[in-house]
Amino acid sequence: MSYCRWFEGDLYAYRGAETYVIHVAGSAVDRFGVQPLYEESSAGALYERMFQLRQRGCEFPDDALREVAAEAMEEGLRLRSEAGLSTWSATLLTLYPEMFPGPLGASLAGRALRDGLWSLNPVQIRDFASDRHRSVDDTPAGGGAGMVMRADVLGAAVDHVLAERPEAPMLAMTPRGKPLTQALVRELAAGPGISILCGRFEGIDERLFEARPILPVSIGDYVLSGGEVAALTLLDACVRLLPGVMGAASSGEEESFEAGLLEYPHYTRPVTWEGRTIPEVLRSGDHAKIAAWRAERARADTRSRRPDLVERHGDARRPPPSGAQRED
Description:
The chain is of the alpha/beta class. Helices cover 35% and strands 19% of the residues. It has ten helices and 14 strands. It has helices at residues 26-32, 43-56, 62-82, 107-114, 151-164, 182-189, 207-211, 227-239, 287-305, 307-312, and strands at 2-4, 11-15, 20-24, 37-40, 88-94, 118-124, 137-138, 148-149, 170-179, 193-198, 203-204, 214-218, 272-273, 276-277.
């Protein structure tokens, strides 16, 4: 099976009998300093190699990369199933399935997607419309600007997803929803997966929320063009907490909001930059003092930048997961 050929660019990539093979055109080898031949053991490894070659300057069709990514996802899901491992699954009800996975196809989330740690299934809402125009919206009752997503069409779409995945909670991304918090993210990430309805236009017919078990969720006090970008935000927050996605199991434990506080500030080399020096305590090697400094900075920054968190969590005195205690 071939993914791209010479006449399409700089690569000839195909699946051989036992390995995945990439031949690189001689002109590209000379121009970009890459090898003429690569052999990879899996579709996931092939994707990583092709992505690297793209970054080096090699040209080939985008469809080839998407095709390899899809095969890598199927491969990852199959291997996890054969090993008896579960996969966190996300189903998206949307008018724009092409927006997914979007940025979630890159970096840690993208690798986890190809490795089968999580799966993504965008579902076109228009497939559940009953008229020949595949209409999903209508004018608002009582008058006003814009259009409203219809309850009958969304109801059919939601019923379809709930029937297929009754164990997964159904959420709707809307500015009228419950604020998204790290506590909710952790709860969702610990479950079997989620289903998300992406709102559009002026909003969703309120009768849908009265008739179906849907949790409205908002990512902030502002308005987007649609719920797809909000869904990407929610998915990224959940996926990064899945076992095996981040490098260390503790990577997400001392971040903003985990203890009702903003996270402490970070520094790295060089020690001095534009006359500004890393705080001396962070260079002292005294872990107790460092922990205490970080805890105090987290409390101070939370009080100055997010007083609403202080009000919500008391005097923001809860210790972070590191166990650092305040020194009064």
